[in-house]
Amino acid sequence: MMLLPSLFGPLLGDLRRWVAGATPTAAPEKLTQTSDASPEAVGSLGAWPSLALVAGYTVLALAGAARVLHSRDV
Description:
This protein has helices at about 5-10, 15-20, 25-30, 40, 45-74. The radius of gyration is 14 Å and the shape is flat. The protein has five helices and no strands. The protein is mainly alpha-helical.
């Protein structure tokens, strides 16, 4: 899942920057403004949308883990 946006992003043309900013690795880079957090690497999302994206990825990961845990415990 983490590699799919970077693999298929170049095929999307103008949406490439947006797809690059929506990856699970780019959003934390945008929040911390690391040295390699160029607009090409992290896209055009601002700080608050990046934070919401990180929170959304966290919620999805926790929900998936809870579902797997519940299905294995039954």
